[in-house]
Amino acid sequence: MPRSVSDAREWMRHGTALFTSRTDLGESALAEPSALPGWTRKHVLAHVAANADALGSLVRWAATGEPTPMYASPADRAAGIERGRQLPARDLKAWLRRSADALADAMARLSGQQWQACVQTAQGRTVPATEVPWMRAREVYLHAVDLATSLSFAGLPADFLTALCDDVTDKRSRGPGPALVLAATDTGGQWKLPGTGEAVTLAGPLAEITAYLTGRANRLSVAGGEPAPVLAPWL
């Protein structure tokens, strides 16, 4: 589905509030494993806080015209997450709120022309600044589920899930992988992935299809009960 900057900013606002509401946990609970292999909930919080700072660099790039990359290097990005996850819970949550507020405030100051300025993502893609709210919305919504509380993909807005499936299938269509047809039985949405071999059809609720496409745990299976084909990492 098409997504506008206003849609993405609203998803970003709602997703940020949702993520923050899921971090009302004590020190021991935050030290427990998340749904991401090898990461605790503190790792996830640190990543989301650092992501807001990094996207803030792209907003600054758009505002000033001076190139300011998201991260100095992949090693610098990883080191920042590691430092963050060692913070006391109170300090880590304060960083999370502070960085999210700063990003929203910086976006609010962009002019129409500045929103059209080109910036570069951490993956090296050149995109207009209008992509930044969408990039942030993906982070906060997906990682709210990754915190492994009681939230699942079924608790996220259906219009966001549809836009995310569009985005992920577009990216996956440019790389190797199995040929797939994915059908959302509750919304009627359908996505196709060109790939190798005869196309496999996977049908299920939109939430399960989104989980599968983004590499999260899901209950999809091929007709007959065989496991769904394994996909390569998405990002």
β-strand amount: 5-15%
Order of helices and strands: HHHHHHEEHHEEEH
Number of distinct beta strands: 5
Largest beta sheet: strand ordering:
4-3-5
Overall pLDDT level:
96
Would you identify the regions where 5 or more consecutive residues have pLDDT less than 50? none
Rounded Rg? 18 Å
Work out the oligomeric state of the chains in this entry: single chain
Descriptive tags:
235 residues; 5 strands; two-stranded antiparallel ribbon
Write a concise synopsis of the structure shown.
The chain is mainly alpha-helical and 235 residues long.
Can you describe what's shown?
With 235 residues, the protein is mostly helical. Helices cover 51% and strands 11% of the residues. A hairpin with a 5-residue loop joins strand 3 and strand 4. It is globular. The relative contact order is 0.13. The model has no long low-confidence stretch (mean pLDDT 96).
Give the topology, please.
Blueprint: H1 5-21, H2 27-30, H3 41-64, H4 74-85, H5 89-108, H6 112-115, E1 118-120, E2 126-128, H7 132-146, H8 158-172, E3 178-184, E4 190-193, E5 196-204, H9 206-213
Parallel strand pairs: 3-5
Antiparallel strand pairs: 1-2, 3-4
